[in-house]
Amino acid sequence: MDSFIGLAKQGLAAYESSQSNVSKTGGSEYNSPDNRPQSVSRPSFNADEVAQTAAEQGSGHAGMFSQAVSYVKSNTQEHEEPIDEEHVTNSHQEAYERGNASSLSAGSMGSAAALQIFKQFTSGGGGGGSNSQSQLISMAMAEASKLFDQSGGASSGSKQDAVNGAGMMVMKMLVQSKMSSMMGGGNSGGLGGMSGMLGLLENFIR
């Protein structure tokens, strides 16, 4: 998992570097597609469907999950912020290996839940395409809600914060992996080669 997140971070760094000149001249990268490797495509999904699926699988009302989806979709700048791989990995270990999720903040709990679902998805398949992306987000938010309740809450933050964190972590993984893929695939040697997990993730971002 470390290699995957590290690769995603490398892709993000390379992308930001490619945009530095555009930013300095005052141009907007979003309005200058010719100066980008390609326009970064964010996962598209039906917000109501994602929230409803999460509510069916998780612990909480649909409104909470709808609010989380809105948070993820509206805070697009966070999609490209580097993932703190050490923090996410440690949070996952604390929650799922040591059974001490209650020591985590709600946001960290959400990230741990997202990583748990992500690992399940990539190891067990699940098909590709936008439907799989929607399912991944729904399952991560649902897992965060259940983890929050099972742990008796978090050290700080609310259940909404945990669900928001899970949804945002999935989006960051998807977007940043897409960036890494655009920078060069493993077979061509770009960025030092794709990890097996990233290769599987490409099924979800085509």
Automatic annotation (TrEMBL):
A Pfam family: DUF7721
Biased composition (Polar residues): 16-44
Disordered: annotated span: 15-62
Domain DUF7721 residue range list: 47-126
Protein known as: Beta-flanking protein
Source organism per UniProt: Lentinula detonsa
